[in-house]
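Reply to dn_fold:

You asked what the input looked like. This is it:
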Amino acid sequence: MISAVAEQFQIHPQTLRLYEREGLLKPSRSDGNTRLYTEEDLERLEVILKLTRDLGVNLAGVEIILNMRERMAEMQRQIEAFVSSLNTEIVSQRARPSAQEPSHSLIPVIEIKRTRK
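and this is what came back:
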C-alpha cells in the first residue's frame, strides 16, 4: 500500500502519486482501488530515488533513463536468444556424421597460396 511504501522509502505519499502520474511507476490496484506495489515496482522506485536524490536527475531525465534501461534489457534478451539458437545450430552441425560434410559451414575456410619470388 502507498502508506507502507512511503514510510519504507521515507518519502511523502504525494511523491508516489506524482511518479505514477508521470508514468514512472505503475502499481496495480486492488478491488477497493488501493495501490499495490510489487517487488518490481519497489526496485524501480529504488532506481528512481537513486537517480533523483543521489544524482540530481530530474523526472524527464529519469523517464529517459528508465526507457533506455528497458530497451537495453530487451536487447540483452534478444542477444541471449540469438546466441542460444546459434549454439543449438552449431551442436546440430557437429552431430552430423563426419562422412557427410555439409555443403556450407558457419565459418568459411580461406586458403592462402604462397608464391615464391
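The chain has a mean pLDDT of 88.
Hope that clears it up.
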